[in-house]
Amino acid sequence: TQAGVVGNSGSLYAAGNQRLQVTGTLSNTGVIVAQGDNRITAARIDSGTQSLLGAGVKADGSLGASGDLTLTTTQGITASGQNLAAGHASL
Fold first, then answer.
1. Would the pLDDT of 33 be above 80?
2. Fewer beta carbons under 10 A from the terminal one: N or C of the chain?
3. What are the b/e assignments for 55-78, b being 16+ CB within 10 Å?
4. Total count of domains within the chain
5. Residue 56, domain member (yes or no)
6. In whole angstroms, what is the distance from residue 81 CA to residue 46 CA?
């Protein structure tokens, strides 16, 4: 592995709010979702074409009534897959 780099090819699912902080690059080809708010902070976010970033996502995959998706970077975002928010989305 490379220092400061987090890779996800599986599923990260939070039943409530989720906060993910990475000092380097977040490389996502899988699913990172929360039933509540989902806040992701990294130097760079690379989320592939088959990926899902979401907030307010129920266990069955449908959108709930609320949930904000916030992606914050200092070096850029590539979010080529699905990006879902039941509430607000901020990239």
1. yes
2. N
3. bbbeeeeeeeeebbbbbebeeebe
4. 1
5. yes
6. 10
